[in-house]
Amino acid sequence: MAASVTDHPASGLGAVIFQLPDEWAQIRAAIADLDSTPALEAVLKTVEKRATLAMLEPDYIDRDFQDEHAGHYARTFRQLPNRCRRLHFFAEAGDVYPYLGYAVLRPLRAHPVGRTIIAPPSELQPHVSCVCTSVVRPHGERLRVSGFPFMEQDSQHGVCAHACVWMVALYHHFVNGAPRREVSDIATGAASHPEPLRINPSGGLSAAQVAVALEQLGLRPINYTIAGLSQVHAVSRTVCRYLNSRLPVVLATEGHATVLVGYGRDSQGRLFYVRSDEGAGPYDVVYASEDPLGPWNYLFVPTPGRIHLTGENAEPIARRYFQGLLKKDERAGLRKHLGARLRLRTYVTQAGDYKTRAPERGLSERLHRSFRFLPTPDWVWVIELQDPNLATHSRSCVLGEIAIDATCDDTDPNPLFGYIGGYGLRWEDGRTLPLQTELGDSTPHYSGTALHDVPSTELPGPKDRPRRGGGRLESVRRRFGNR
C-alpha cells in the first residue's frame, strides 16, 4: 500500500505517497486508466532507477492543459475533465530527498503526458547542455528541478511540431526570460503562414509554418536545410555550435519533428545526440546516420535575442584574425603550443554572462578589466582557440578568444575584443587590426562552451521507436504531423 501522507515532508492533504521501488505497481494501478504510451513509459524509465519516493497530486490544475481544453476539448461531444494529475519523483540521500522532477498527466487516455521536467539520467547528464530550472510548489513545498521540458502531442490541438516548439518556448522562458507560451499561441502563429491547412484539429505543420510560428513567438529561427550543408561533418559542426551555446535545435525528419538538447561520444568514439522526442520520450539517444526516424531534412535554431550572424560565418572571421596574430613571433606565451594543431570552438552567449563568468574561468583581473567595461551588444559570438592536446584531459585548454558582435553582417564583421598569448585585443570601430595590450596572462583558461570533449561513455543503444497511427506525410509539403 501507499505510505501515509505524513511520511514525507513533501506530502500534504490530497497527495498519495509511494515508496519505491516496492510500490511501482501501485503507481501503475493509480494511472491504469491511461494508455501506456512510449512517451509515458520513457518518462517512468528515466526515473525508475533513481527514485525512492513518488507523490501523486490527484487534482491538479495545469495551465497548459487548460489552454488545450479551452481551445479544443471543451467543444467536443465527449466530456473530458479539465483537471490533471501530477507525479513528483524524489531520490534519497540520507535524511533528505533530492527532487528529480515532475510529470503532468492529462485526462487524455491515448496521449497522457503533459508538461514534464525530469532531471537527465546520470549517464547522460554530462552530455545535456540545454537545461532550465523549474520551481514547483506542491502543497506548500518549494521544489526545484533542472532539465529540459517535455510534452507528448495530443494529436488534436497540437501535433509533434507544436510539442517541439512548445518545449523550446518553455525552455527559453525559464532560461532567457521569453514570454510564457501555450499550444494555442503556436497554432495562431503557424496560421499566419498562408497555407490551406486545418488548424484545429491540427493536420500537422509544414516546415515553413514551423519557422513562421517560431518567428511569431519572438524566437526568430536560424534555418538550415541538410542538403544545403552538403557534408555530414558540417551538420555535426553546425549542431554542436548551437548546443555548445545552450540553444536547443529543432530537427525535422520525414513526417516528424524532435529537439536536440545535447551531444557526446560513446565508448567507440562515435558522436551521438541527446534529443527530446514527443513520441519516444525525453533524453533519447540517437546517431545521425542511424536515426530510426529516417534522414535529417531541416534544422531550426530558435534564438531568444538578436543573433543575426550565424556560427558558421562567425568562426571564419575569427580564424583569419587568429592566423594573422599567430604569425607574430613575439607571442612567447604561445610558443610551446604552436607545435600542436590548434582548433577553434565557437558558441554564442549573452555578453553580460560572458563577462560575469570570465573570473570563474580563470581569466586574470587585468585581462577581465581590459574588456569588462567595453560597450557590447546583448549577444556575442565567442570563438576559442584551443590546444587539443590539453583538451583531451582538461577544459583548461583555451589559449585565446575573440568576441564578435552577433548583430553584424558577415560581409562587414564587427570583432569587439579578445586575447591571445598574454595580449589583450580590442577593435575600435572601423579598424581592421586590433589594438594590443600586453597583460602577461598566457595561462590556458577554462573553456566557456556548454559541453566539451568529455570522456567516452557507455550508453544504451538508440531506442526502437514504436510506430503509431496518425496523419500521413504529404511528401512535397513535408508536413510534420501525427506519427
Précis, in short:
This protein has 483 residues and is α+β, with helices and mostly antiparallel strands. Helices cover 24% and strands 26% of the residues.
* Low-pLDDT segments, ≥5 res: 1-12, 196-203, 465-483
CATH class of the largest domain: Alpha Beta
> What is the gyration radius calculated from CA atoms?
24 Å
What is the architecture of the largest domain at the second tier of CATH?
Alpha-Beta Complex
Give the DSSP E fraction (strand runs of 2 or more residues): 25-35%
Could you characterize what this model shows?
- This protein has 483 residues and is an alpha+beta fold.
- The chain folds into 2 domains: 16-302, Cathepsin B, Chain A; 311-446, no CATH class.
- The protein is 24% helix and 26% strand.
- The protein is built from 12 helices and 20 strands.
- The protein has helices spanning 24-30, 38-48, 63-71, 160-176, 183-191, 207-216, 226-229, 232-244, 311-326, 351-357, 365-372, 388-391; strands at residues 16-19, 53-60, 84-90, 99-105, 113-118, 132-136, 143-150, 221-225, 249-253, 256-265, 271-277, 281-286, 296-302, 343-350, 379-386, 396-405, 415-420, 423-426, 435-438, 445-446.
- A hairpin with a 7-residue loop joins strand 4 (99-105) and strand 5 (113-118).
- Helix 5 packs across helix 6 (207-216).
- Residues 1-12, 196-203 and 465-483 have low confidence and may be disordered.
